[in-house]
Amino acid sequence: MWGSRRLSSSGGHFLGVVGSGCRVGRAERPRLASWAVYSDSQLIWTLQNKPWIFSEHRTVCFKSCRMTFSSLNRIKSYWPPLTRPYSAAHTTVDSSEVKTFLALAHKWWDEEGVYAPLHSMNDLRVPFIRDNLLKTMANHHPGKPLSGMKILDVGCGGGLLTEPLGRLGASVFGIDPVDENIKTAQHHKAFDPVLDKRIEYKVCSLEEIAEETEDTFDAVIASEVVEHVADLETFIQCCCRVLKHGGSLFITTINKTQLSYVLGIVFSEQIAGIVPKGTHTWEKFISPEKLESILESNGLLVQTVAGMIYNPFSGHWHWSENTSLNYAAHAVKSMAADHLGPADFVSKEETEAPQAEASTISQVHEELKE
Question: What is the DSSP string of 24-82?
Fold first, then answer.
């Protein structure tokens, strides 16, 4: 419906740790006598968690190339999804970004000003969020379709997206590290008594919320935010932590391409002045593929990725299959996201055919013992 596409999942990692001096087919037989006394369970654990052990004797030789690619490629040498333990010490807030948005805090509700593209983006992102959330609901009120939903709007700014979601019936909690942004948001919502009851704002970072609560929100929104954070992986970890199982994460951001540099920074900031200079840093842009990899390694399954195109002359956005500039992503927290470890990261193929996998492991064991 959105002209969206599903990115291919990053299936498996290739286990290719080969020591120096390895010559396929003619290398000297490696001294791997210690492998002969390994049990099957020890071997599986080692293959999954210590792939570097293959370089212990500085050379590795497998007799069968067919066995190498058909067997080892199926053995997932995944690291745990959280490559480092979650900690609020890993801040996601970039102080330089805070200064940039502090200077613009009074301009959020100027629909003809620097935030005009964000006002216009609501024409796409609000229906995108609404329609995907409705897929998870059995029943809904026609006038308030998101009634009963608890949503966290991260980096809410002046409330440009928070308020439309509140009008759809959701209880929305907007957070932002810039105090002046929250003051602007609170002042604006006060004009609508209904929104005043449905929306709550707080000056804080995402990691502070993650410290206080867990499995709380039906949806987390990070619209035009991830390209401004200091630590993206910690940010995604925190999003996953506060989401309920089966909850949705919505992200809109900018792809990291040459085109996004030319149009998103050179043209938009330096030539046309669509956004203030210094608003974006190209190095912080992220491709849909890289974002999906981070999301899925944290137990968030990507459902949809759709490109968005902005026309600076008309001031309107439209959906596109092209994601080389802006794009929107929707991911869902898996039921086992909080309990993932090295042994839990197995492919669907391995789950459906455990006997075949055991046979494969046995073949590898035999090759190593020989």
Answer: TTTSPPP--GGGGG--HHHHHHHHHH-GGGGGTTS----S-HHHHHHHGGGS--PPPSS
Note the Cα 283 to chain centre separation in Å.
17
What is d(CA 150, CA 137) in angstroms, rounded to the nearest whole number?
13
For 195-207, the pLDDT digits (tens) are 999 999 999 999 9
Confidence at residue 353, expressed as pLDDT on a 0 to 100 scale: 44
Yes or no: say if 172 and 165 are a contact pair by the CB < 8 Å rule.
yes
Whether residue 352 is predicted with pLDDT greater than 60 in this model: the reply is: no
Helices (H), strands (E): how many in the chain?
A: 13, 8
CB contact at 8 A, 176 and 156: yes
Q: Please give the Cα distance from 165 to 161 (Å, whole number).
A: 7
DSSP state of 272: S
Q: Is residue 218 within 8 Å of residue 145, measured between CB atoms?
A: no
Determine the Cα–Cα distance for residues 210 and 149; give it in Å rounded to an integer. 19
What are the structure tokens assigned to 294, written together? 């981070």
- CA geometry: angle at 288 spanning 285 and 289, to 5°? 115
Measured in residues, the chain has a length of 370
* Strand ranges, E, within 191-264: 199-203, 217-223, 243-254
Closest CA to 220 of 252, 192, 195: 252
Answer whether residue 73 shows pLDDT above 60: no
Tally of CB atoms within 10 A around 260: 20
Q: Which residues does residue 304 pair with via DSSP β-bridges, in sequence order?
A: 330
